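#dry-run=false #mode=assembly
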Amino acid sequence: MAKHNNNNNGKAQEKDEKKLGITVKKSDNFSEWYTQLCAEQGADLVDTRYGVAGFVVHKPWAFKILRGIYDLLDKEIEEDGHEPLLFPTVIPEENLLKEEEHAGFAPDVFWITHGGNTKLERKLALRPTGETAFYPMYGLWIRSHNDLPFKRFQSRITVFRNEATTRPFLRGREFMFYETHDVFATHKEAMKQIDTDMKIMNEVAYETLKIPFIFFKRPKWDKFLGADDTYASDTIMPDGKRNQCSSTHDLGQNFAKVYDVTFKDKDGKLKYGYQTCFGPGIYRLMAALIAIHGDDNGLILPTAVTPIHIVIIPITFSKKPELTEKVLNKCKQVKELIEKSCFGIKVKLDDEDKSPGYKYNKWELMGVPLRIEIGPREADGDEVTIVNRISREKEKLNLKNIEKELNTHINDFEVMLKKRADEYFKGNTKDADSLEKVKKIIEEHRGFIKVPWCSTEKDGEKCAETLKAETMGGVVSGIKFESPEKPKKDQKCVICGKEAKHIVYVAKSY
Amino acid sequence: MAKHNNNNNGKAQEKDEKKLGITVKKSDNFSEWYTQLCAEQGADLVDTRYGVAGFVVHKPWAFKILRGIYDLLDKEIEEDGHEPLLFPTVIPEENLLKEEEHAGFAPDVFWITHGGNTKLERKLALRPTGETAFYPMYGLWIRSHNDLPFKRFQSRITVFRNEATTRPFLRGREFMFYETHDVFATHKEAMKQIDTDMKIMNEVAYETLKIPFIFFKRPKWDKFLGADDTYASDTIMPDGKRNQCSSTHDLGQNFAKVYDVTFKDKDGKLKYGYQTCFGPGIYRLMAALIAIHGDDNGLILPTAVTPIHIVIIPITFSKKPELTEKVLNKCKQVKELIEKSCFGIKVKLDDEDKSPGYKYNKWELMGVPLRIEIGPREADGDEVTIVNRISREKEKLNLKNIEKELNTHINDFEVMLKKRADEYFKGNTKDADSLEKVKKIIEEHRGFIKVPWCSTEKDGEKCAETLKAETMGGVVSGIKFESPEKPKKDQKCVICGKEAKHIVYVAKSY
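#status=ok
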């Protein structure tokens, strides 16, 4: 499985200079554009040459963005009353297998069998997710109704699945993970938590990261095996495929019964808890950020997670050193002015020995929202040039009013980013009331297709199988959780022709 | 190896109420005191009943303290110019074994051999540390002198070693890790970094966490195998044993030659880099915090990492509900006043339905620096009672001057904590100029013993072996890095009687 590409033959070799730039357009070849943008010549997000297929190294720029996403989630999750835990990375075989009939993770699990040269008495699984690690302990910790609601989370961890194919931030054999695991006394409270989870996704993914999504109740045939129901937020990627950015499982009392998660209720009786778990997809949010906001010049980063808000680039001329010094001094002054006046704004002066053109290119690739250019003509005055990463238009920035002007620029950038993403997402949802129309839309456009559907219970699964076969992979994402749409009178299921009970969203999926 | 203690037999069982309190004195039985303090009835830091020996669950209180330690380090490390990375948790076998002769990790490594039911083509190691993961990639990334110094770090991760015996925060099969990996053009710059690493430890461990330590250059026989030299900070635990809280390795060009970490220098020639790596011990700092600051009533937490600075406890009487309401209202007012007036102070109102005595006990166990008590008599006035966790003396707190008064209380607490730790540490260092004296001190007291020593090069190793055998485990920690002490004229090595070249510090070790 492991693949080893680096040239470590133990002697010093000639090395090539690093080259920058993406050679394809996003609209021409999204897949290649995405690959190049993730790599060293792009925004330098990951290195896939680590030597084990599906395991990547996260470079500093990516790590800082991902850490930013974690921080946004931690804030919301803790404010919602969750306490942090850290569990071992390994799960005893018998705990994992106890839940086998529900969860069925075993085929994808990596197994640890040896410590040094000695075979372990019982093999250990690298965690594929947290349920079978958490819940046996919940069985010990939770005693009475006073302990409920019991809300815990685990952040900044990775999980492991032996996937057949991998892609940076979309599917990895080791990938960044986030999980909450909650226990309630009643199913009603559990359902309220699912609503809260959706609101947290709305705050983090949509309002802050500007990733539009729809929160669905999945059809019964596409739920997490151990759950009664699964709820998920899906966005659409530029290749028209659905990207699941979070899931919340309504676990009912299924796991509670297996792992003995009980509490003594006010009436003195011992009862099983109702459980939910929420998994915002750190990787999937990152993939959506890259793919939805990025353009032919590189990444475009929302201000909440960009490692740098403003880069200052001196326009210098190697033949005129006295001008260079003047320009560099002005750049330093402007940097200090911004740091002093604009709280929370992260600013970088790029004084590397490279041409201004190289630097424009580089920081556009990296997705920094704003660029300030300072040349000899601007070294004396109170005005410098500012460029918005989205519009790429040059404007004047008055240094005398810097706090207000920069806030306006940042706000304009955020509004632009959201508007652009909203329009993109709206354009990726179409209606169809027949299989022929569904097939046509999927062929030429993909994205979400709203269709009338017979049933999202088990009896609708057959239609889903037909749909998938007829459309080369189209799947039913589910019914909208908030204000589910009702079919018009007399609308029929696009597959079986029976009366439609729901409007569901169909899309190809990763 | 795995041990499974929980009662998951799939049906609801009677559960006991959780009980609080430590039943032994720290001075009578440090080991038992430490175990109880870490457990559920103590400060509820870890749960060792996870089912796999040596793998523990970190509970919320411990996790928040540990996260605080990580944050302190991240701040210093990033300010020193390190950029964050995240590497895979697994290391390809051939990369690990390439360095076998230097590092020799293989005997303690956990091996992943299967994905699902399929045997992997080549087995993967769970990382025991980062060198053999990082440096093959450094070989690809570092190209020219412009890339140097190259400073990267990895935070908030765990590593895995199949240790024979384990203890919470002292030795685990999976434990929290922190690592920097730096490359320099010259050895001089590498040595400067080692000095900086020491200063970072001084800032974080001593100035902030109030853990006194000595920074040593280890004797050659006790260095990391792959390094030219190892530098380490050691503190002393209450059982007199040395606790290594960090190490920095001067790797010279050893790893660079194995993993091809080269750069094109200004003169156009390809050269090997000089490497250092710094590993502050997250677990070890936590163990020191618990053991050095804690007392018979529980933890005592430095303000920089305590999850709560002040707990407010209402003194209520179940028989007088109208007084209870009045007291609770006052408590809420005081909480809001503190939140509004004192930026950065984390305050909690404990309004759980338990007695004040239970709550005093609980929050003393948890180590919260300050406690405010509000009873019926204080519900009307401008004065409440405040209690310092160390002195446990009651004082009056004037609410009209709350910001200033609370800052004074917190400052007093910090000064007290440092003074206490300094005195403790000073009392744990003695002098000896003969083996007999060393043996006597180790037997009755342990701690550091300063002794004249022949050599810390390879030729001193025999004496170290004799010392260890004669003292039932005493080891040479090394020579002080800053201002190394010189033996007096005519002082002889306590073992071989040859002329002493150094004053070294001897202690038993974990």
